[in-house]
Design goal:
By secondary structure, the protein is α/β, with parallel strands linked by helices. 35% of the residues lie in helices and 21% in strands. It has a single domain, classed as FAD/NAD(P)-binding domain. The strands form four sheets. The chain has a seven-stranded mixed β-sheet, covered by helices on one side. It has a six-stranded mixed β-sheet with strand order 8-2-1-12-19-18.
């Protein structure tokens, strides 16, 4: 089969590696599967532009992210050496401290889970890292001739045969037996699932929130507890920070099961209300003369002027903004696939940053899809009577993939939306103070009695997800 992946970011790179690993080879005289990744941006020549893009569909992306234990398990099953390389470029976190704007601890949440590997009893922690570190480790494992820098502008479906991809540069269209849409929030591939619609029926929804972030050297900052991710809430917004790398001398810096001494870099980010004007899904160019970073930085100083957390008080005067992007989510899609066109990652379900699961769910998507394709293509290739065609096998795999993935990501989205409301501004001074204290009381109670509100159970169910067992249960 000819398999095309649209998008060479995190999702697209993982998709190539997983499909290459799992897909069975067609029986002779058929040739092995042919892969091509089409990526709109050239990572080698367009570094500045792509660093501003925060979506998992784009090659080099700025800012930090967290990969939860469930996502790390996917990487471990894919390639243990790959996992260790990614971990070495980040920092392992075993707990999150939820605090007031003054730095008072409200609750402590474990970021660890029992290891699902039968050969390793140690817990798996959460990885805090840069998006570029993750993408780079994936990208270097892909042959150069697999990735072609072309912008796909249309995917034309075909229920009985190859699909057609059209390009922005007017070069000749190409055909593919399978198209994997890893092209993010504004997915072109998604439109092919709904060919009758004249406009995108499931366009992204702006959440009236904006996120800004960057990195700082730790030399001048107050010490942060090792192994912690710190999340601070108030009526005027949200602020988070964590170590972004481990000490280069740590013997366990590549282990997802150990907390190493921190390195020299701290990642920070803040999210707050910005109802108007509604920005576009494309993050602004930080080098644009129309974007005044000085004014934006001063705005952050004003917004958080009453916060007394020692780390934030030290961060604010020295911050350099590296990423700025509006928060979008995508409406639930009725399906993630249609006769050989399959969406993964942000193209299928754009989760808000509050979920802490954006990258991990993209990783899960890829493994689930790969395992279903492996199973049904295996049946097709070994069916001596020719009763199941490749197209039928791919379609069945896509249906099972959608059925398993949609409920899971929808549940994560619903939980994230509840938490996301805590990052929005309150109206009025009195209303803000009342809401702030009620929020703090609720968080404190959740810390002491997580079972009463289902918080602990819900979070545990997300990170302790046994993906191979779930796939096997369906099969």
């Amino acid at each position: 089969m000819k398999i095309v992946i649209v998008g060479g970011g995190i999702s697209g790179c993982v998709a190539y590696l997983a499909l290459r690993k799992h897909l069975p080879r067609p029986p002779p005289p058929a040739e092995d599967h042919e892969f091509t990744i089409y990526e709109a941006y050239d990572a080698n020549t367009n570094h500045d532009r792509s660093e501003q893009d925060t979506h998992s569909s784009t090659p080099i992306i700025g800012g930090g992210l967290g990969i939860a234990p469930n996502g790390l398990h996917v990487l471990e099953r894919l390639d243990s050496d790959l996992l260790h390389e990614i971990v070495q470029g980040g920092y392992m976190v075993d707990h999150s401290n939820v605090k007031t704007k003054h730095g008072h601890l409200l609750m402590r949440l474990s970021s660890s889970t029992a290891c699902l590997s039968p050969n390793n009893p140690l817990p798996m922690h959460l990885l805090g890292t840069s998006r570029h570190n993750l993408w780079q480790a994936l990208h270097r494992r892909i042959p150069e001739d697999i990735i072609i820098n072309k912008r796909v502008v249309k995917v034309t479906p075909n229920t009985t045969g190859p699909k057609t991809l059209t390009f922005a540069d007017d070069s000749p269209p190409v055909s593919a037996d399978v198209v994997i849409g890893a092209d993010g929030l504004k997915s072109i591939t998604k439109r092919a699932l709904f060919p009758e619609a004249t406009e995108d029926p499931y366009s992204p929804h702006y959440e009236n929130l904006i996120s800004i972030g960057g990195f700082l050297p730790t030399t001048s900052l107050p010490p942060t507890p090792p192994g912690s991710m710190n999340l601070l809430f108030s009526a005027t917004g949200f602020f988070g920070y964590f170590y972004a790398n481990s000490s280069p001398t740590s013997p366990h810096r590549s282990s997802p099961h150990h907390i190493s001494p921190p390195g020299d870099t701290l990642a920070w980010w803040t999210t707050y209300s910005m109802p108007t004007p509604t920005p576009t899904p494309t993050p602004p160019d930080l080098t644009s003369p129309n974007l005044n970073l000085t004014t934006l930085t001063q705005h952050l100083h004003t917004r958080y002027s009453t916060w007394t957390d020692p780390t934030i008080s030290t961060i604010l005067p020295t911050i350099t903004i590296k990423t700025i992007y509006p928060v979008f989510t995508s409406p639930p899609l009725p399906t993630f696939s249609s006769t050989g066109i399959i969406l993964i990652g942000d193209a299928a379900h754009t989760l808000p940053p509050t979920s802490g699961q954006g990258a991990s769910q993209a990783l899960e998507d890829v493994e689930v899809l790969s395992l279903f394709l492996k199973h049904y293509l295996g049946i097709s290739y070994h069916d001596e009577n020719g009763g199941v065609s490749e197209l039928e096998a791919v379609s069945r795999a896509g249906e099972e993939y959608t059925s398993l993935r949609r409920p899971r990501v929808q549940g994560i989205l619903e939980r994230a939306e509840k938490m996301q409301g805590l990052k929005r501004d309150s109206i009025g001074w009195l209303g803000g103070r009342v809401r702030e204290w009620m929020m703090y009381l609720g968080m404190w109670l959740m810390g002491w009695f997580p079972g009463l509100v289902g918080w602990g159970m819900g979070l545990r169910g997300v990170v302790e997800y046994d993906l191979p067992w779930e796939v096997e249960r369906v099969l």
